[in-house]
Amino acid sequence: MVFLIFVFIGRESLPVFLGKTDTATAKFIPVDQMDHLTPEQLRQYLLLSPAEFKGKSREFLRHKMELREEEAKESGDNKDAAINTTRWRYMLRPYQWSDYNRPEFIWQPRGEIQKFNIIPLVVGSLKVTTVALLISVPLSLAAAIFVSQLCPVRIRELIKPGIELLAGIPSVVLGFFALNVMAGVLQGIFHYRSALNALLAGAALGLAVVPVVFSIAEDALTSVPRSYVQAALALGSSRWQAAWQVVVPAAVPGIFAAIVLGFGRAIGETMIVLMASGNAGVMSWSLLDSARTITATIAAELGEAVQGSPHYRVLFMIGVLLFVVTFLSNLAGELVMQRLKGRLEGKR
Q1: In a domain, 141, yes or no
Q2: Number of structural domains in the chain
Q3: Is there a domain that residue 15 lies in?
Q4: How many other C-beta atoms can be found within 10 angstroms of the C-beta atom of residue 55?
Q5: Domain extent at residue 97
Q6: Helix (H) or strand (E) holding 183
């Protein structure tokens, strides 16, 4: 199923990877030259897929050519109108557009000149995910160590289900909570200008990641043989020393797996960041500025993108990049976990 999903999104984004999309509006073919084009040339000029081109009437194709010609004439002398912004040069590196004083990273798919630089989306995703992990991982691991090794049984029966119930809260509810409660609280504490920013989105996202990391880490700590703890206590260690110096090192593979899955949960979240990040595609490393993530971009724009258009293809392309990143991170986590497990078991 995962492979089929990848094939589907990869098929839709393939024209971008192969360089077969073109956003240049200054290049146009006069409508009266329509009869001089082969069907394949006409399809490529109108940016239609073979399935979309098949069965279209002559009136429809002529109308598409007229629209293309009108766009080119409206562009006038704008030098940016001749640029194909779906080339990797413009999607990965800064470019000085005609209305700007310096090269900029810009994601602006709507307008006369469509700009598809994906670097602001990548930076926004990294900022939000980093904040979420910095908040959730220490809290989750501390709670897992306390619940599995230190707290009385009666308290454990209250704390563990309470934390795990957080996983049942819909992400849209956490998004509303961040929007209506956390935004005002954090702005009152830090006195920043933009109420919706990467810090707020990361803090709210951390609440969604906590139960994932906690559950897996607590299971890993609990699975450590009790004989390890009993031996440490018999040698004079306190319960905290036994937990920190014996149990935690023995459970490192499971804890690492919990962190990797927490990363996957954070970078793939949509609703929380869509509601709390501000959704401004600006290139900024500051956590107090609004941010725009890859997942929020896909959710916000895919419904309005014309099927088969360059915008539509680019959205699927960044979906492929997100899929590859999560797949490689999980694969790397699995390899590291197996290596750590092998060392603990004395196999390597």
Answers
A1: yes
A2: 2
A3: no
A4: 7
A5: 20-117
A6: helix 183-190
Look up the pTM and report it: 0.82
Per-residue tens of pLDDT for the chain, all 348 residues? 878 888 888 888 888 888 888 777 656 677 777 777 788 777 766 767 677 777 788 888 888 777 777 766 665 556 777 788 889 999 999 988 887 888 989 998 887 788 899 999 999 999 999 999 999 999 999 999 999 888 888 888 888 888 888 888 899 999 999 999 999 998 888 888 888 999 999 999 999 999 999 999 998 898 888 888 889 889 888 888 998 998 998 888 889 889 988 998 899 889 999 999 988 888 888 888 899 999 999 999 988 887 778 889 999 999 999 988 888 888 887 887 777 777 666 665
Q: Assess whether 75 and 92 both reside in one domain.
A: yes
Last residue within a domain, chosen from 91, 117, 143: 117
Token digits for 259? Answer: 């962190």
Q: Write out the two tokens for 270.
A: 């949509």
What are the b/e assignments for 101-122, b being 16+ CB within 10 Å? eeebbbbebeeebbbbbbbbbb
What's 140's domain CATH number? 1.10.3720.10
